[in-house]
Design a protein that fits this description.
Helix content is 77%, strand content 0%. The protein is mainly alpha-helical and 172 residues long.
């Protein structure tokens, strides 16, 4: 059971734990996540994580959900600002692609670690699938705003292409 907080202090503490989990995922993959490690990274008592999350799987799922929500909001702001500035579709597309690829290496590694861990751990697949679906929905909205003929059809290929560029960048 996930304990959803009602008080602002509890909500802030839960988010602090999730952000610590995101950092640990980026640094060491899903195997780096333990209740103790997350609490220590967040600077909170060891029992804090088990108060909000019964299992590491729940913690991982919630951390990934927060990460995707943050990322999609960031990308939507980029597209909105570019469209409001009257940039061409090519300029908007380039801005989005650069933002997707030109992230900190630890963020990219964390993303790919989760993809790989989902391949090994079926319990992560629904969460990673939801994250990919949210990213595809964003990409479809952005491609539609740019005038793509089939934005929903092009979104998965666009994201796969960008992920490929990002993966190649990590190896250099």
């Amino acid at each position: 059971m996930v304990n959803e907080p009602r008080q602002e202090r509890s909500k802030a503490r839960r988010e602090q734990l999730l952000r610590a989990a995101i950092e640990l995922l980026a640094e060491g993959g899903a195997r780096a996540l333990t209740h103790r490690a997350v609490a220590a990274r967040a600077g909170l008592p060891p029992a804090s994580t088990t108060y909000y999350f019964d299992t590491i799987q729940q913690l991982t799922d919630a951390a990934l959900e927060l990460h995707v929500t943050d990322r999609v909001a960031e990308l939507e702001a980029i597209v909105s600002a570019a469209l409001a500035a009257g940039e061409t579709p090519e300029e908007v597309g380039a801005a989005v692609a650069v933002s997707l690829v030109d992230r900190a290496a630890d963020q990219l590694v964390g993303q790919f670690e989760l993809y790989l861990e989902a391949a090994r751990n079926p319990a992560l697949r629904p969460t990673v699938g939801e994250a990919l679906a949210a990213s595809e929905q964003f990409a479809a909205r952005a491609l539609k705003a740019l005038g793509a003929r089939d934005p929903e059809g092009a979104a998965p290929a666009f994201l796969a292409l960008v992920d490929g560029f990002a993966l190649h960048r990590l190896g250099r």
